[in-house]
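Submission sheet (multi-component)
Chains listed below:
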Amino acid sequence: MTPERIQSLLETYRDGLLEDTLPFWIRHAVDRRHGGFITSLDHDGTVIDTDKGLWQQGRFTWLLGELYNQVEPRQQWLDLAIAGADFIEKHGFDPSDGRMWFHVTRDGGPIRKRRYAFSESFAAIAFGELFKATGRSRYADLARQLFGRFIDHNLDPKNTPQKFTDTRPTRALGFPMITIATAQELRDSIGLPDAQTWIDRSIETIRRYHLKPDLKCVMETVGGDGAILDHFDGRTLTPGHAIEGAWFILWEGKLRGDEELVHLGCQMLDWSWQRGWDSEHGGILYFVDLRGLPVQEYWHDMKFWWPQNETIIATLLAYQLTGDAKYATWHQQIHDWAYAHFPDQQHGEWFGYLHRDGSISSRLKGNLWKGPFHLPRMQLTCWRILNEMRVG
Amino acid sequence: MTPERIQSLLETYRDGLLEDTLPFWIRHAVDRRHGGFITSLDHDGTVIDTDKGLWQQGRFTWLLGELYNQVEPRQQWLDLAIAGADFIEKHGFDPSDGRMWFHVTRDGGPIRKRRYAFSESFAAIAFGELFKATGRSRYADLARQLFGRFIDHNLDPKNTPQKFTDTRPTRALGFPMITIATAQELRDSIGLPDAQTWIDRSIETIRRYHLKPDLKCVMETVGGDGAILDHFDGRTLTPGHAIEGAWFILWEGKLRGDEELVHLGCQMLDWSWQRGWDSEHGGILYFVDLRGLPVQEYWHDMKFWWPQNETIIATLLAYQLTGDAKYATWHQQIHDWAYAHFPDQQHGEWFGYLHRDGSISSRLKGNLWKGPFHLPRMQLTCWRILNEMRVG
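Outcome: structure written.
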């Protein structure tokens, strides 16, 4: 990459974050009446569903705290982060079992809890940033406690009805992957003592059970012992997810200066790019089948925003860490395709849901799944990487 | 419709059923080793997942029995129906609570039970046809018992973890709609004594809670008292589903000679056609928003096979019952669009999942949701209607 390209990309990400993404969400998603954030927004920012998702409460709170801690200590960011944390503390928990809700009404009435505990992991990193920003020990306690509950619930989901019987036990990539990212965040924000242990353990889980060198792929779901399950669910790969996991591991390799981890992350990226990049239309496909058979999920060939975000980070980071020109080429391919199709030129931010050919399927800007997270995290992370590349 | 058009359509449906759809499923889906049916098939009929869905076990068994009883008493159809019923009896039930599974392994190991009881409703009509075909009272007992369990579970789902809290109670169109169709089938096959009562009660439920004359629409989901819930789920309309319900009511009107029911069914069809017909590309959209806002479900603008099947039946039946030329025009529109895009010219049967523009999204012929049901039921029902129109 030329210095000019680095500078131009840096400005695209930095200015996109500070002048487009963040203002869009601050302007439209902040609930001044009941606190917290409403992320179900039409293309122009109009609220189209007042319900609140706990994932997005945690994620936006984390983002605001992260920006305060990493970019500059703007009071507005901190105030909004504290308001997000207040809403989570007040309305995020089911007093009957201490678990977090997934979906509540505008004023915090509970609607739905899920079998999984990702509300907990996102709230943990949010509280962690607030500890770092304010020094209040309560935030660190909450962060630590929620990380523990996230781990405990995933390892042993007590009192939670399971979707499947025990006939065919499975393990999913999501838990070890999110554990890595959550522990990385909490190591940085609250100095989580056993962060390294959880990161090592999760990387080992991914390596042992989900990586299949003979098939050149990262399995999203495997049997309890890592066996390939030759059924729809078992064969379904989610390349964008595996690529997200790849850059969490690349990041760890970068921090530790560990060549082996960098190699592992690159391998996951390489295999998943080969399987997920749509050579016909461009962009990363949502799902593909291990053996090229039809996928059962209806939206398998759509282009969602977040797999593109994660691939933009992963390819740039792989290039920074290896200098391999292949990654610069891939980064340009995915960056150019994403920026040609996702940004809303009229109202700002990105569309979330495109057809395979890049045409818009839905003009939604947000819902309980799409909020201020993957796009701004990409913008922030790539800005930081490019800044290092520039001065390096 | 001219006599020539009637004759030509009749042959399309009849020959499609007997020479294409049915042979495809009998050739590829029958499990000679473990009994029952494997419906997860690639475009050429290759089995791509050996798991079995209880919906499809019941539906294929019903279809075979219905053909035996309505078309001609072919021994092969009866033998296969009995094999389907055997598999359901042996492997369909959880002995711990008597409820039916949704998803089992090839040899009947339980994988998943759902919160709903539609496995029960489809098994009920299957056993009903087998009673009619064989006169064995055990089949009638099973049919009656399963209808009871279907009703009881829907009205009071004991021991079943609910997806949502009680904060915002909802009622869904599916239960009253499927109750009508199930009771109609069981009235015919086993002379279910309270069929008429359940049909009347279900039509009244739909009329009172789901029909909104001021908005000209049939709501898929409403509040417990029928209120519009101005959230994603509450605003999401499923026109193909409402049209399916419309023809169940038209059918009841036809059987009873009840003009008011015919009027009701036509109203549901008219409103749902206006909202669901894709005037840009043709075909019935999967989901649309009550107020034209973005829909949250990712596949909202895809064209699935079954909404087209149900609309082909509904428009033809509405034409037969009213003589209104509008319905003949709509029937031709939906028939022509569906037949131009869904049939697989190479391997037979229909594709299930097209993009909005009619291009193929997945070459899947079947899975736990798509099996020998909507298409052959359409072919059989339209053949019967056209036969009446021809001789009438």
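Remark: The mean pLDDT of chain B is 97.
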